[in-house]
Amino acid sequence: MYHMCVVHSVSMTEANVLDQIIALLDSDDAETVNTSMRLPTTLRSAAALAVEHLGIAASTTTLTAAALRSSIETAVMEHALADHFDQYPAARPTVAEVAHALALQDGSPLAARPDVIERAAKDVLRRHRGATPDDVLLWAEAQQALSA
Amino acid sequence: MRTVILDNEAVQALSDATHAKHRVVLAHLVGIAGRRRRGDDVAAVVPTSVSAEAGWDRTDARSASINRLRIADRPLDQATANLAAAIIRRTGVSVADAHVGAAARGAVGDVVVLTSDPGDMVRVSSPTTITAVRI
Known about the structure:
Chain A is an all-alpha fold. Chain A is built from six helices and no strands.
């Protein structure tokens, strides 16, 4: 019982933190702040060069803010999904199911072969436990090319 | 850059853990999160007319879970409303479906629509080429 209360409390805290982060990310407030965040000098120089010569952003400030926002948004999404799967374990898709979803999004011919994806997922995960859905798709495509 | 647009049924499936397609839509979102983690520029979006039709009220406490999935709103502003009106005139679809079409036409890069009706989504998005994924 104690354990359940602790788990619930931790989960609520994380949900509150996610909500606070989301509220901040979605805020229209354009106020800026001079941050005391310390960046390695070489990284800052690399960013300045990339902005000036590769045109990847309007400024190093824009580049830093966009990268930071994207990273935080991805982390929020991952944590929200993990929280949801903690709450509803049956809703967690398998690696093969996610790979199939990506094949559909990519318009890959593999989308029509969930059986091939399923088999590839089993093969890859047997060898590499941390394999990603994209690893599975790559493996399935390679296997199909070899057998063609 | 890829934009993944959710239609009415995709939102309903996502909102309800007991929905038959809940896990399918989550598989797409897990895939999107994984691609973002590796550095791909992928965004999941929902036209606000779709949210309204699907009953997704972001201020409702019951929406807390889905609100955290970083699915961005595509509002029905004046330009989008004009485009949606033209789509309705051309195809006779609902406002929500026309809004999906308008959002697809305004998106940059690849457009994927998660939908229960791929044929309609291709029609409303024309002449923009989309990948309509049946959920």
